[in-house]
UniProtKB/TrEMBL annotation:
Gene3D superfamilies: P-loop containing nucleotide triphosphate hydrolases. Its EC number is 2.7.4.23. Catalyzes the phosphorylation of ribose 1,5-bisphosphate to 5-phospho-D-ribosyl alpha-1-diphosphate (PRPP). Keywords: ATP-binding, Nucleotide-binding, Transferase. InterPro entries: GK/Ca_channel_bsu, Guanylate_kin-like_dom, P-loop_NTPase, PhnN. It comes from Pantoea rwandensis. Pathway: Metabolic intermediate biosynthesis; 5-phospho-alpha-D-ribose 1-diphosphate biosynthesis; 5-phospho-alpha-D-ribose 1-diphosphate from D-ribose 5-phosphate (route II): step 3/3. It comes from the Bacteria. ATP binds at residues 9-16. It catalyses: alpha-D-ribose 1,5-bisphosphate + ATP = 5-phospho-alpha-D-ribose 1-diphosphate + ADP. This is Ribose 1,5-bisphosphate phosphokinase PhnN. Belongs to the ribose 1,5-bisphosphokinase family.
Amino acid sequence: MARLIWLTGPSGSGKDSLLNALREAPPDNLVIAHRYITRPADAGGENHVALSEAEFRRRQAMGLFAISWQAHGLYYGLGEEIDHWLARGLNVLVNGSRLHLPIVEQQYGTQLLPLVLHVSPAVLEMRLRQRGRESEGEIRQRLARASEPLPAHCHPLNNDGALSDTLNGLRQLLEHPP
């Protein structure tokens, strides 16, 4: 059965770095989906498709997103292509939203494999400060949100150490899903 692999984790946990590393040599049966976001293309971080809010809403109204949500003042969407890829028997890995996991669970049921990229509070704080995108207040908010308990059915993937170790752990999960 093809799986929708819903990768979540706090901002600064290394999701973009992990996905970029996996894109270099993905497993044969895996597609890494791009998100459609109302954020400029040159904003840094995630490799995404930049849309204006008007274009996002237009595509949403036309039913072109399999999943869409709002967070941090932006609109996010996953194109309907992910459903076509799943139907072809391909596993699809996406950078998902922890808050929207219940909606995705209802839509994809047993096809869903929820993963949470986890880092210790000290490592997360260091990474947030190093990237310099957030204010002190935003850093405190992100740290508080990251300390909330993980949903019981999510599979944790630790990213405190070397990215290559995390990538190997992800590859093992993809080859032998729980």
